[in-house]
UniProtKB/TrEMBL annotation:
Electron transport system for the ribonucleotide reductase system NrdEF. InterPro entries: GlrX_NrdH, Glutaredoxin, Grx-like_ET, Thioredoxin-like_sf. GO terms for biological process: cell redox homeostasis. SUPFAM superfamilies: Thioredoxin-like. PANTHER family: GLUTAREDOXIN (PTHR34386), GLUTAREDOXIN-LIKE PROTEIN NRDH (PTHR34386:SF1). The gene is nrdH. Belongs to the glutaredoxin family. Keywords: Disulfide bond, Electron transport, Redox-active center, Transport. Residues 3-61 form the Glutaredoxin domain. This is Glutaredoxin-like protein NrdH. GO terms for molecular function: electron transfer activity.
Length: 73
């Protein structure tokens, strides 16, 4: 399953999310929302207004969600 983390610089929740994914050995891509207008539009179209936004297959969520991350491993 492809996992993508849509992030922003200096985002504490973004860092916590990517660290938790790394600790569980989950491969993921990071997209910087400040550098990719299409990605920003995509997450806004999903209804999100804060980073990080994680898309994992059909699942997606915003913020640091250890409960959701643990379900991926």
């Amino acid at each position: 399953m492809a996992v993508t983390v849509y992030s922003k610089p200096a985002c504490v929740q973004c860092t916590a999310t990517t660290r938790a994914l790394q600790q569980r050995g989950i491969l993921f891509d990071v997209v910087d929302l400040t550098e990719d207008d299409d990605a920003m539009q995509q997450v806004q179209d999903l209804g999100y207004r804060q980073a990080p936004v994680v898309i994992a297959g059909e699942e997606h969520w915003s913020g640091f969600r250890p409960d959701k991350i643990s379900m991926l491993s």
